[in-house]
UniProtKB/TrEMBL annotation:
PANTHER family: CONSERVED MEMBRANE PROTEIN, MEMBRANE PROTEIN. The keyword Ribosomal protein does not apply. This is Putative membrane protein YkvI. It comes from Xylanibacillus composti. It comes from the Bacteria. InterPro entries: YkvI-like. Keywords: Membrane, Transmembrane, Transmembrane helix. Signal peptide: none annotated. The chain crosses the membrane at residues 40-65, 86-113, 119-136, 148-167, 187-208, 220-244, 264-288, 300-319, 325-343.
Length: 348
């Protein structure tokens, strides 16, 4: 019984970290849901189901491959998937992508401060950078602990938002919303979204899989994490659909949905959005620094500082501009990586 209890606790930590890594700036703010799902109208419910299935199967497979091969970094895993030379090139490309997306996370934090707290955009950036330096001094354990607190709170607030939506006049919009998008784009959407997020999440999922001794915890955690991501995607889509098309004008659309709850609950939710952005940000910085550290002979704290300075520079371009430009482009490129992950034999 004690072993089973430890397995369940470890599985929940894995699930929450998996969800917290994927549920980042674009997801928690609502921008990602709008870009990849809600804009496609009634078809979004089906594409979300497809994405959830892919997250369950392939997220678990990714961690099990790392577990069975004891890979120290995602570069080693990519070497296994693509061969040594191609794997090296892909790993370097993914590091560039990871850097770009981490900059998007930082820009999202700045937008939260500016749009909802009435504070300067730059203040949000600096606060996030300083908090990251403080947290990452404790390594992977800090990431697991932060996600174990933030993700359950995000699920709770998501349930509140869905409950509000059910009572609103636009409750059934998600089943009637029209779209003139071509069918091929709708079909590719869940695959691009999953490919992009899993290709980046490997920076955290690979170390988790390699370091976790309990294989059953990985299997259970991957399943729960994938289902949880699907649930939050669908909940966000239902809530955003009820406010279409007006909600598209906001940088942080999910933050506007809780406006009827009153000032304090709205503020609490916006703080939670910031926390979700932050969990993905610190996970990405950790993965990027760990990967670079395996190649560059540099003091880890100094390397982390240099990464953060680079993210700060790129984040000056703004959140929605970075999200709308970088995410679809990186998602398409990540499709090749996803295809190789699917092709590899599932660990027994």
């Amino acid at each position: 019984m004690p072993n089973m209890k430890r397995t369940r606790v470890a599985a929940l930590q894995i699930a929450f970290t998996y969800m917290g890594t994927v549920v980042g700036a674009g997801f928690a703010t609502g921008q990602e849901i709008l870009q990849f799902f809600t804009r496609y109208g009634t078809a979004a419910a089906v594409t979300i189901a497809v994405a959830s299935f892919l997250f369950v199967k392939l997220g678990t497979k990714l961690m099990l491959l790392a577990h069975d091969r004891r890979t120290a970094s995602f570069e080693q895993l990519n070497g296994y998937l693509f061969g040594e030379r191609a794997g090296l090139l892909i790993s370097w490309f993914l590091m560039i992508v990871l850097f770009g997306v981490t900059s998007v996370m930082l820009a999202g934090a700045g937008s939260v401060f500016m749009e909802h707290f009435g504070l300067p955009y730059q203040a949000g950036l600096v606060f996030t950078l300083l908090l990251t330096l403080l947290i990452l001094r404790r390594g992977m354990n800090a990431i697991l602990e932060v996600n174990s607190f933030v993700v359950p709170m995000m699920i709770l607030f998501t349930l509140v938002i869905v409950g509000m939506t059910v009572l609103s006049p636009g409750a059934g919009q998600w089943m009637k919303l029209s779209s003139d998008a071509p069918l091929w784009r709708v079909f590719l959407s869940p695959f691009i979204y999953t490919a992009f997020n899993l290709a980046l999440a490997q920076a955290v999922l690979v170390p988790i899989g390699a370091e976790m001794k309990d294989r059953r915890a990985i299997e259970l955690g991957g399943m729960l994490g994938g289902i949880g991501i699907g649930f939050m995607l669908l909940s966000g889509h239902i809530a955003l659909s009820a406010q279409m098309p007006g909600v598209e004008q906001y940088e942080i659309p999910m933050g506007m949905l809780v406006h009827p709850l009153g000032k304090w609950l709205q503020l609490s939710y916006v703080l939670l959005i910031f926390c979700e952005i932050f969990t993905t940000f610190i996970a990405n910085v950790y993965g990027l620094t760990r990967q670079l550290g395996s190649r560059l002979r540099m003091d880890p704290p100094l390397l982390t500082l240099l990464v953060l300075i680079g993210c700060f520079a790129v984040s000056q371009l703004g959140f929605s501009m970075l999200l709308g430009t970088l995410y679809p482009l990186f998602g398409v490129v990540s499709m090749g990586w996803l295809a190789m992950l699917i092709a590899r034999k599932q660990p027994a």
